[in-house]
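YM 10:42: ethanolamine-phosphate cytidylyltransferase sequence, as discussed on the call
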Amino acid sequence: MSDQPETPLPDTPAVPLSDDRIWVDGCFDFSHHGHAGAMLQAKQLGKFLAVGIHSDEEITANKGPTVMNLQERVSAVDACKWSDLSVPYAPYVTQIPWLNHFGCKYVVHGDDVTTDADGNDCYRLVKAEDRFKIVKRTPGISTTDLVGRMLLCTKQHHIKNLSAVLKQEEDTMRRFEMYATDSTGLAPGSNVWTYSPSKNSVQKLVAGIDPTPEQRIIYVDGGFDLFSSGQIEFLRLVVEAEKEKNPSLPPPYVVAGIHDDYTINKQKGLNYPIMNALERSLCVLQCRYVSAVILDAPFEPTKEFLNTISGGIGAKVQAVYHGPTAFMPSEGDPYADAREMGLFVQVGEHKFSHVNAGTIVDRIVAARERFEERQRKKGVKAGYEDHMTHE
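YM 10:58: structure's back
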C-alpha cells in the first residue's frame, strides 16, 4: 500500500505499457543543459520519452519557490529535441498509475537522490516495483548553481576561449558530440562550426546533417543566456514563419550564431552572461528548432561574415531573423548589412517577449530573501540527499 496520496490522472487516453516508452520528471526551472542531458540519456534507453513537469505549487511545497512559472517551464521541455511529450502537473513523488497511464515501463533519473518535503525519496514507489533506471547526472550545473551566480554576482564561470577548451578537454568535446545528436540521441544531428574572426573562416567541429538543396538557410544569433522561454519562442516562430511563407518546402535549416562571453559582458556588463559559452551552446544544441550552431559568432553579422558562413555551409544564407528585443549598443545597428542585403526579418512581440536573462535575474533579486532561504535549505537538503545516495 502506498504512503503517498495519488494525484488524479489527466483526462487523456491511456497508452499500452511498453519497454520503449520512458518517463522522466522534474521541475525544469529555467532551462539548462543538465536538464537536457537527463532527457538525452533517457531517450537513448527507449524510443519515446514522456516528460513530467511538476506544478508551481508542488515545487514550492517540496523545494522552494520557482523562478519560472509552469507555462514557461513547459515551453522549455517542449523545445528539447529528445522530448516526445510534455506532461504538466506531474506529481512530485513519481506514482505508478501515472507511468501506466502514459504507457511508460521505466522511470529514468540521475545518480543522486531527490527527496520530498518529508525527506523521503521521490522515487521510492517506482524503485519498489523495479521500474527505475539510473543515468549519470550532468556535473557542474544545476538551477541552484545558476541562482547562486546571480545572487553573488560572480564572473568566475566565464570562458575566455571556448574553442581552445574544446580542443583540450576530451570530456567537454564528447558532451558537444552527444548534444549534437538527432532526436533519437543515437545518430548524428546538428552541425557545429567555430568562427575565427582573425581568419574570417568557419571550421566544422562536429559533423551533423547538412542542409538539403531544397532547404532555406536561416541565420539567427544571440547570447541565448539562461535559454529562456522568450528565446525559445523566438526560435519556434522563426521556423513557423518559414513554413508559412514556403509551405511546399521542407522545414528551414536554422543556423544559430552564439556570441562568446567577452562579447556579451562587453554589451551587458555586470556578471553577464550568467551561463558561460559552453553552457549556452549546449542549451541551443538541444533545441529542436535549431539545425546547426556557430560558436564565437560576431555581434554584428556583416556581409563578409554572412558570405563566409554561406561558403562553410555550402549554401547561401537566405534570411537573417531577429527577435523583438532592443539593440544594446547605442551606436549603429548590428543588422545594417543584413538589411542592406535584403535578408533581415523581424519577429514581432509574442507571449514570452518579456522573458529573457535580465527578467530572470530581476525575479531572483526581487525575491532575494526567499531565494537565499531556498539556497540555504537546498544546501542542507543536498547534504542529506548525498548521504542517502551513498548509504
